[in-house]
Design goal:
- An 8-stranded mixed sheet has the order 1-2-3-4-5-6-8-7, with helices on both faces.
- The protein has a single domain, classed as 3-Layer(aba) Sandwich (Aminopeptidase).
- Strand 7 and strand 8 form a beta hairpin.
- It has helices at residues 47-54, 57-60, 70-82, 135-150, 165-173, 192-197, and strands at 31-33, 38-41, 90-98, 103-112, 119-126, 155-161, 177-181, 185-191.
- With 199 residues, the protein is an alpha+beta fold.
Length: 199
């Protein structure tokens, strides 16, 4: 995961992990509705919201490179809408939609590497106006069951800048364990068995 500036609160209590039905739907229909957000595949109509938050200086603070142009972003969303959910060597992004505000407020995703079967590298980014309110944690708590149960991953990993406390703080709250910290980058992991054993 490339580092993101994330939700800064402890967030709401953990949500149930078995009530939102990723596994009961076709890949095109996979949608989770939590107490406050919907996690779903990106659609072309999400372009304006996506461009707004992914180009925000606060969000870019720990990201390499430049924001996507409108053309690049449109192509990215179109590819995501049609991407096979088990495609390897690909980033799989899911929009986090806020029904009350009728806008996409961020995204969660996973990189599935061909040379690391059974493992995914996760990431997330959210609009600054929605930091500190538990949205990132709420979305990720419902994304993890999809990764472990539907995609049958044995382990997920994530990394961020060591100075990005918001990002690694969320990883810890999700139950991830620290693997390495060289003073520049922190790497975390969460194994399926550990996740299933969490209360």
């Amino acid at each position: 995961m490339r580092a993101r500036v994330l939700d800064r609160s402890d967030g709401p209590p953990a949500l149930p992990r078995d009530g939102y039905g990723w596994g009961s739907r076709s890949p095109e229909e996979r949608t989770i509705t939590t107490a406050r957000v919907t996690v779903r595949r990106f659609a072309p109509g999400d372009l304006d919201d996506f461009l707004t938050y992914q180009s925000d200086p606060v969000v870019r603070a720990h990201l390499p490179g430049e924001p996507m142009s409108a053309g690049a972003a449109a192509g990215f969303l179109a590819r995501q809408a049609d991407l096979d959910e088990r495609q390897t060597d690909a980033w799989h992004a899911f929009a986090v939609h806020h029904p009350g505000d009728d806008r996409v407020i961020g995204d969660v995703g996973v990189w599935l590497a061909a040379d690391r079967p059974g493992t995914g590298d996760i990431g997330f980014q959210f609009a600054p106006a929605y930091h500190g309110q538990g949205y990132a944690r709420e979305a990720m708590q419902q994304f993890l069951p999809y990764l472990f149960e539907t995609l049958d991953l044995g382990e997920v990993t994530a990394g961020c800048d060591s100075v990005n406390r918001a990002s690694w703080g969320l990883m810890r709250r999700l139950g991830m364990e620290l693997m390495t910290d060289d003073g520049t980058v922190r790497r975390y992991r969460l194994r399926a068995g550990t996740w299933r054993d969490q209360p």
